[in-house]
Amino acid sequence: MPWWGNLVIILAVAAAAIIGIYFLNKRNQKKLNEQQEQIDASKQQISMLVIDKKKMKIKDSGMPQMVIDQMPWYGKIRKFPIVKAKVGPRIMTFIAENEVFDLIPVKTEIKAQVSGLYIVDVKSIRGSLESAKKKKNKEKKESKLDILIKKGRGEM
Predict the structure, then answer these.
(1) For the chain, which residues make up each domain, given as ranges?
(2) Phi and psi for 5 in degrees, rounded to 5?
(3) Which of 25, 118, 125, 154 is the most exposed place for a label (fewest CB within 10 A)?
(4) Separation CA 123–CA 103 (nearest Å)
């Protein structure tokens, strides 16, 4: 077979893969929109005292066994943003959105919009919510090329 025949086969396989990914993405987006509608329909505002928050695996979080059993296999190995809070007289465990998890202050009373065991939005009762300080990443080491460039410009 000539070289261009192999190229045609490779291009056909690549085109089929792209088309398959497109339709999978379309189906997943439809599911996501349906789930978001359900969350919006059932959310309610709750006042809670946040005790602790961590990112941990669902089986170590203290969630009810029914929730753990319904989780797909790839969800059981992933770490989730877990918030332990006192709602009324009970201590409950919630899962938060990643954006909301950064805003939740620890050992503070907050008002949160909750859909089941899922924290959708957070508002503060006393004072304002301050975005949590992001963890400092390890400083990047400068490469030798960057050092030489700075020396050449007289920046050091």
Answers:
(1) 1-42, 43-124
(2) -65, -40
(3) 154
(4) 9
Q: Length of the chain in residues, anyone?
A: 156
Amino acid at 75: G
Q: Helix, strand or coil for residue 79?
A: strand
Top-tier CATH class for 43-124: mainly beta
Spell out the per-residue pLDDT of the chain, length 156, in tens.
677 888 999 999 999 999 999 999 999 999 999 988 988 888 999 999 999 999 999 888 888 899 889 888 888 889 999 999 999 999 999 999 988 998 898 898 999 999 988 999 998 777 666 644 444 344 455 666 677 676 676 554
Q: How far apart are CA 130 and CA 133, in angstroms?
A: 9
Given this model, what pLDDT does residue 123 score?
85
**β-pairing verdict for 79-87 and 90-96:** antiparallel
Token readout for 79 is 């770490």
pTM of the model: 0.65
Torsion sign, CA atoms 59, 60, 65, 68 = negative
Could you give the 3-state DSSP secondary structure of residue 78? Answer: coil
CA atoms of 55 and 98, how far apart (whole Å):
10
For residue 19 the two structure tokens come to 């088309």
